[in-house]
Design goal:
By secondary structure, this protein is of the alpha/beta class. Helix content is 39%, strand content 16%. It is built from 24 helices and 26 strands. The protein has an eight-stranded parallel beta sheet. A hairpin with a 5-residue loop joins strand 1 and strand 2. The longest helix is centred in the middle third of the chain and has 32 residues. It starts with a helix and ends in a 7-residue tail after the last helix. The mean pLDDT is 93.
């Protein structure tokens, strides 16, 4: 391979070699490296381009003027590269909460600048005297806000110093209540968190509620959003906007007098996203028109305050929504990269002119975000008022759709032409490319991590915790060129230490715990790095194995949450009954090289292995039945996971209810009803079924949370 390409790839943080999920060493081809480097902004088609790109990268690494942001940790000296011309310069650090620190840079900056340790976390300002230069020092606590901190803050009497809490996990869209229009909403979530708290839960983990594409209601995967900065308007409860009378009047205008069509969507077992979304958006438009005609109220003043607080980011998103709808209405592409040049730039005069002409439409999308924020914020308040020390745990998707609002408005930070994905592994032998945009690590540093920080703040804004999807992306991401096979991707390194510090800092500022989904091909030592940063990993029952046995509860780590399953995996009942194998057989997704009978024999062995572990832990007795449709030892599995030393155990609602179907089957689009299943029971009755209540009682007995006692 061309050594110039290898040197450039190394300088850019692009891995030429890696180890796959099977332990086999792999190499990235030269052509793939060239394409990815070019998309990163480092062209290398010729030797001259290679040299120019490498020179730029080396200059960036060597440092020069003050970078826009430098991270550090409380109690540790702050080090960063700086040009020798600043040697010996006096400096002042203005602390965020008042006070300052004066000092002088070393006479020799060959090893970089060294600033004294700062004992207060926050965003402080460093000024070099006489140089006219300033930068932000983001000084983080040594670890994230933790579960013990949440419990201490909630002041629950009788709580141990080493708390072990439990919570429920739920796909928000799946919640069912009268009046929801066929999609689970924030009002249903309020009911759910109150019920969960009444049963002793300390937290409720929800599916992502990121903003989607209101003009393209066929996109509904919560992990493929338009923007991670804003919320999904389809979870708004219209009656919470202006009241039930306003909704009834709007339904008459829409030709649904009495709400019969709307009620019909509410009883379906699967969400018809295009129909339900179109219906709800039409209803919300009617309510917005009525709102605009009733000016001068406190609600209008609240809305204007929300718009001011949202600033340019909110306006960018609202303008994108209006632009996106207008292009689709013209029969043109909804992908902003296909738009005329003048509309691809959010700061262009043409975009400003469009926004002025479409002020009503832009205002509508700002209005939707206001209502969504009120709904989600209300659910978190309800959780805390009901006694939960954590409350909602939000889910931060690994990326936003390359064709969406965040990619359009944050083009300087998000890589153009590459998609986040995964290399071939045990579950996906062809690898994956998700069509999601990734931040450029080089642009992040050059622009002071501004887009990343605003995303963290959006995630923490209405929650007591956050689950970071594919947290391995803090260290490296598998990036695939648009249109290429996932196998032609490569790992790109990220400034993990900077990102962990920013997460820790924002978690304390919002007093929210942080969980990282660390399932998959984990770099060596990464789990230790997460644990040291106070970022909890995830351990799933079916993966907690060693050779031919399941790990016993005491062998599970204290640095990760425990759960029976995830949205991408079979439920306990479905795994036991081989429902996932049924689906994979039907959709031709069985592992390559294995027959159906081999897969089912392997599952029978796994069932026996699990039952032995449940028996040994005192959670079950008996031998596994020979057939896959026998009753799953669900109560035993719940007790088993609950008895681990994990500081937080999450029971997905599907396992609390004993359901056999999983929310999502990776590797499928239309063949499996991904993200469409609704829970059968109304949300206000969901947890009161005797069998469900008994499982939650098990969690209470084996977990030490005393919040409602």
């Amino acid at each position: 391979m061309n050594t110039a390409i290898l040197d450039l790839a190394k300088a850019a943080g692009l891995a030429h070699e890696w180890t796959n999920a099977f332990g086999k060493p792999m190499r990235v081809g030269e052509d793939a490296l060239r394409v990815i480097l070019d998309k990163l902004g480092f062209p290398c088609a010729t030797d001259d381009q290679c040299r120019d790109s490498e020179t730029r990268l080396l200059a960036m690494a060597a440092g020069g003027d003050l970078p826009p942001l430098v991270t550090g940790t409380v109690g540790h000296a702050v080090r960063f590269p700086l040009h020798q011309r600043f040697a010996g310069k006096p400096f002042r650090i203005a602390l965020e909460e008042g006070g300052h620190i004066d000092g002088r840079l070393p006479d020799d900056l060959g090893s970089g600048a060294v600033l004294p340790a700062i004992d207060r976390h926050g965003y402080h300002r460093l000024t070099l005297d006489g140089a006219g230069l300033e930068t932000t020092l983001a000084i983080a606590p040594p670890r994230c806000f933790g579960i013990a901190d949440a419990v201490a803050g909630a002041s629950h009497a009788g709580q141990t110093a080493d708390p072990r809490l439990w919570g429920l996990g739920v796909q928000l869209y799946s919640l069912r209540r009268n009046g929801d229009g066929g999609i689970g909403d924030f009002t249903g979530l309020v009911s759910f968190v109150r019920s969960a708290a009444g049963h002793g839960a300390a937290a409720v983990a929800i599916s992502p509620v990121h903003a989607m594409f209101s003009a393209d209601v066929n996109r509904f995967s919560p992990y493929g959003p338009s923007s991670r900065l804003f919320l999904n308007a389809l979870h708004i409860d219209p009656e919470a906007v202006l009241g039930p009378d306003a909704v009834a009047s709007a339904l008459v205008l829409l030709g649904d007098d009495g709400g019969g069509r709307r009620a019909g969507m509410e009883i379906e077992p699967l969400i018809d996203w295009p129909l339900a979304a179109s219906s709800k958006l039409a209803l919300l438009r009617c309510l917005y028109e009525r709102f605009c005609n009733e000016s001068g109220s406190d609600a209008h003043r609240d809305f204007e305050a929300f718009r001011r607080q949202g600033g340019g980011a909110l306006r960018d998103h609202a303008i994108f929504e209006a632009l996106h709808a207008s292009r689709l209405a013209l029969g043109e592409s909804g992908y902003w990269k296909d738009w005329p040049d003048k509309l691809r730039d959010p700061r262009s005069p043409a975009v400003a002119e469009f926004a002025a002409q479409q002020a009503y439409e832009v205002g509508f999308h700002e209005f939707l975000q206001w209502q969504a924020a009120r709904g989600l914020g209300g659910a978190q308040r309800a959780a805390r008022e009901a006694g939960m020390p954590i409350g909602l745990i939000a889910d931060l998707a690994v990326g936003a759709d390359n064709s969406g609002s965040q990619a359009w408005s944050r083009q300087a930070e998000i890589i153009n032409g590459l998609s986040v994905g995964a290399p071939p592994d045990v579950l996906n032998t062809n690898g994956q490319s998700w069509g999601l945009g990734a931040f450029s690590p080089h642009a992040m540093k050059a622009r002071g991590f501004g887009a990343y920080i605003e995303m963290l703040r959006s995630t923490f804004a209405y929650a007591g915790g956050a689950r970071i999807d594919h947290v391995l992306g803090l260290s490296r991401l598998w990036l695939v060129p648009d249109g290429a096979s996932p196998q032609d991707g490569a790992y790109l390194q990220y400034p993990v230490q900077d990102l962990l510090r920013l997460i820790a800092l924002e978690s304390w500022r919002h007093r929210a715990i942080v969980i990282g989904e660390d399932l998959g091909t984990v770099p060596e030592g990464f789990d230790t790095q997460l644990a040291q940063a106070g970022l909890l990993g995830i351990r799933v029952l079916m993966f907690q194995r060693e050779a031919d046995r399941f790990l016993s509860p005491p062998e599970w780590p204290r640095s990760a949450i425990a759960t029976t399953t995830t949205h991408d995996l079979p439920t306990v009942a479905g795994w036991w009954q081989e429902r996932d194998i049924d689906w994979r057989k039907e959709l031709d997704l069985l592992p390559k090289g294995q027959s159906e009978s081999e897969v089912r024999r392997e599952r029978a062995d796994e069932r026996a292995m699990l039952l032995r572990a449940l028996n040994a832990a005192g959670c079950a007795t008996g031998e596994p039945e020979a057939h896959g449709d026998s009753a799953a030892p669900l109560d035993a599995a719940v007790a088993f996971v609950s008895s681990t030393p994990a500081p937080l155990a999450i029971l997905p609602i599907e396992d609390a209810l004993g359901l056999p179907e999983q929310p999502n089957l990776p590797g499928t689009t239309d063949g499996h009803p991904n993200w469409r299943r609704r829970l059968r029971q109304p949300v206000d009755m969901l947890l009161d079924d005797p069998s469900v209540a008994a499982r939650l009682a098990v969690m209470n007995r084996t977990r030490s949370y005393k919040g409602n006692s």
